[in-house]
Amino acid sequence: MSNRCALVTGGAGFIGSHVVDALIGDGWRVVIVDDLSTGDARRVADEATLEVVDITERAALESVFQAVRPAAVFHLAAQSSVTRSVADPERDCEINVRGTLNVLAGATQHGAPVVFTSTGGALYGNDAPLPTSEDALPAPISPYGASKWAGEAYVVTWREATGNPHAVCRLGNVYGPRQSPHGEAGVVAIFSHSLWRGESPTLFGFGKPTRDYVHVHDVARALLSAVGQAGVFNISTGIETAVSRIFELLRDAAAANVQGELAPLRAGELERSCLDPSRAYEQFGWRAEIGLEEGLAATYEALTAEFEPDRPPESG
Ligand SMILES: NC(=O)c1ccc[n+]([C@@H]2O[C@H](COP(=O)([O-])OP(=O)(O)OC[C@H]3O[C@@H](n4cnc5c(N)ncnc54)[C@H](O)[C@@H]3O)[C@@H](O)[C@H]2O)c1
């Protein structure tokens, strides 16, 4: 057993729990900091230690850092709902900015590099050239995009000030097992849930909006490879896919023949999003390996197995 210990904030969340699994697979000891606000302790691997702590509670977080003395920090804990950020921008800021400062303070004390998960989709605006490179000027259109950008700025500033090689990873649209179908985003999980129930999902923007869909296993691998890599990196495929195509592929996986309900784009949603991932490949040799058809079919199977315990009892 290795003595390297990683601290993963948000490790009971969708992406964080896969990062925890990948670290354990690589021989790391793992301690998770998560307040379980959207996370679920059932996602956490038995080998990891879960500390139920709010990252905005500086003293409590500091105690965890003191006890763990991490060799690397993966900072995924966040308020990650655009709608909630609009309804309560103060709390969004508290978690995504103040919480990030608290994590940076702990990492600085132990000389640990931080890998920070930011957003590609909510950062670059509607006018960015596609596929968008990391050099495009951010133009967020929600408090969530603004708070993640501010968090990034602190990570980069702390890197300059301390010489710690912190990495900012701007993720595309992440999909895969353990994604909740009950959020506002996560279209793969939402469509899978509808198809599993035999219902028609809503295709906002009449199915036309495009996104850069990247499998969570590829993302976890990217975040592990980014340890010690100073810089800002898009973690994505560079491939633009319409939401109608996602629906068709999942419908094939489900062997269903329902039609989607078409509806206009919701306020604050981008029409197109696609991120250029070449910098991550050039700097640390990462690129996405899981193709969309293969990834969606496997995800549909995994998600429906997760939904199964919640199946409503048959009537009659
Ligand atoms: N899912 C995506 O497509 C996507 C895209 C871009 C960026 N991201 C970023 O990736 C990260 C993980 O996102 P996710 O999709 O796994 O979301 P998630 O909601 O499943 O995970 C976030 C985790 O953070 C925890 N958390 C929230 N506030 C906390 C606090 N104050 N203290 C401690 N823990 C707290 C939650 O309980 C949850 O377990 C976030 O930083 C998000 O901004 C996600």
Write out key terms for the chains shown:
alpha/beta; 13 strands; two-stranded parallel ribbon; globular; seven-stranded parallel beta sheet; 316 residues; 2 domains; binds nicotinamide-adenine-dinucleotide; Rossmann fold; UDP-galactose 4-epimerase, domain 1
Would you kindly provide a written description of the structure presented here, covering whatever features stand out?
Strands 3-2-1-4-5-6-11 form a seven-stranded parallel β-sheet, sandwiched between helices. Strands 7-10 form a two-stranded parallel ribbon. Strand 1 (about 5-10), helix 1 (about 15-25) and strand 2 form a beta-alpha-beta unit. The protein has helices spanning about 15-25, 60-70, 80-85, 90-110, 145-160, 185-195, 215-225, 245-255, 280-285, 290-305; strands at about 5-10, 30-35, 50, 70-75, 115-120, 165-170, 175, 200-205, 210, 215, 230-235, 240, 260-265. Helix 1 packs across helix 7 and helix 6 (about 185-195) packs parallel to helix 8. It contains ten helices and 13 strands. It has about 325 residues and is α/β, with parallel strands linked by helices. It folds into two domains: about 5-175 and about 215-235, Rossmann fold (3-Layer(aba) Sandwich); about 180-210 and about 240-270 and about 290-310, UDP-galactose 4-epimerase, domain 1 (Alpha-Beta Complex). Bound molecules: nicotinamide-adenine-dinucleotide. The site of nicotinamide-adenine-dinucleotide has 29 residues, from helix 1, helix 4, strand 5 and strand 7.
